[in-house]
Amino acid sequence: MLEAAVIGVPDDRWDERPMACVVLKPGAEATAGELKAWLTEQTAKFWVPERWTFIETVPKTSVGKFDKKVLRAQNEAGELSIETP
Question: In CATH, which of 3.40.50.720, 3.40.190.290, 3.30.300.30, 3.40.50.2020 is domain 3-76?
Fold first, then answer.
């Protein structure tokens, strides 16, 4: 994995849950299930996202920070392909 951002998305049960937006290194391969399994071993279970999307690049602000507003807008517009392992 090259970089990842996590955004909150609506959830019927919990109101909001995390969704991981992942950028893989060039030539690297990983599935949402593999990343979820690895992350489950590293953190508390309730922190692990149920929804994952693989993107080309994380949008950045003019000062280089992750622009999560853009990711949220892309999600709301249905532009992100979401996986639920």
Answer: 3.30.300.30
